[in-house]
């Protein structure tokens, strides 16, 4: 039963800490806007050639038009394919995308494990004594689970250890790679290797569906030493990720929408004017040594 509680705790911690980090980002003072065009939320051709609403005559008297579809499409390119890395550092992209694509496939694998567990709890087994179930739906869930889980794990293992070795032996990368970044990549690699060891004894991922059943019914999970070690490592990783720079899945939204693409006009009595006034009034709470921040010491009074 302790494993069941631990899995619940790690999932809740991952979601809770991620949401708290998003809340912290949302409450931060206004960032210096880049306004680098093209901005995908500009409608029509402007979003492609680098134009903006500032080109329109008396734009301040016209309602602002925003292309939310353009924003979504560009964000999906970045989230699913890491577009900027592909454009700017193609050699690095192959390794990084192997890691990220593997994570996406493992996310799909997790969902399919849950679907398979629900089907089996409902009396629709995915496997029988003769092999895979003859049911079309059950067999599809089984095989897609197998493909996404196995390919995803192998890609994550390859991507994490490849990035680890590249940062270690590539002089350019090693100069600015911190010890924590080495640890992060190796931690991911260790978790995946422990999972592959468990998978080698059960290629059909039946143990995964049994874990899901235990979570859905809040019942004890039967696990040997290897599976127990993998569950603990994975749970610790879930708790650890949102507390590190690996939580860029949260920060990327704000980096794009509040820094790269934020070109909201500063008009009189507008919400943007209030935000800017608040940013101007912000005073640092820490002690600064820079002369433009630290006020000069008061002049000594003349003694009479």
Automatic annotation (TrEMBL):
Protein species of origin: Desulforamulus aquiferis
Molecular function GO terms recorded: oxidoreductase activity
Protein name: Respiratory nitrate reductase subunit gamma
Region Disordered, residue ranges: 285-304
Recorded topology in the membrane: Multi-pass membrane protein
Compartments in which it is found: Cell membrane
SUPFAM superfamilies: Respiratory nitrate reductase 1 gamma chain
Coiled coil spans: none
């Amino acid at each position: 039963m302790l494993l069941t509680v631990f899995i619940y705790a790690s999932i809740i911690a991952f979601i809770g800490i991620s949401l708290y980090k998003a809340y912290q980002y949302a409450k931060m003072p206004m960032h210096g806007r880049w306004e680098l065009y093209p901005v995908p939320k500009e409608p029509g051709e402007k979003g492609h050639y680098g134009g903006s609403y500032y080109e329109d005559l008396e734009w301040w008297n016209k309602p602002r038009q925003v292309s939310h579809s353009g924003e979504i499409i560009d964000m999906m390119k970045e989230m699913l394919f890491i577009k900027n890395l592909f454009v700017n550092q193609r050699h690095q992209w192959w390794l990084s995308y192997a890691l990220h694509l593997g994570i996406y496939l493992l996310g799909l694998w997790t969902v399919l494990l849950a679907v398979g567990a629900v089907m089996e709890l409902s009396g629709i087994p995915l496997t029988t004594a003769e092999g895979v179930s003859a049911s079309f739906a059950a067999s599809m869930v089984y095989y897609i689970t197998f493909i996404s889980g196995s390919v995803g794990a192998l890609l994550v293992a390859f991507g994490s250890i490849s990035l680890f070795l590249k940062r270690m032996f590539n002089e350019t990368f090693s100069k600015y790679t911190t010890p924590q970044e080495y640890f992060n990549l190796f931690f991911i690699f260790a978790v995946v290797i422990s999972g592959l060891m468990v998978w080698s004894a059960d290629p059909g991922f039946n143990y995964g569906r049994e874990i899901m059943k235990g979570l859905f019914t809040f019942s004890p999970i039967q696990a040997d030493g290897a599976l127990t070690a993998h569950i603990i490592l994975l749970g610790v990783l879930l708790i650890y990720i949102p507390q590190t720079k690996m939580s860029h899945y949260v920060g990327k939204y704000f980096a794009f929408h509040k820094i790269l693409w934020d070109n909201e006009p500063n008009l009189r009595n507008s919400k943007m004017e209030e935000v800017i006034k608040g940013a101007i009034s912000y005073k640092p709470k820490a002690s600064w040594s820079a002369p433009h921040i630290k006020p000069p010491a008061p002049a000594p009074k003349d003694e009479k």
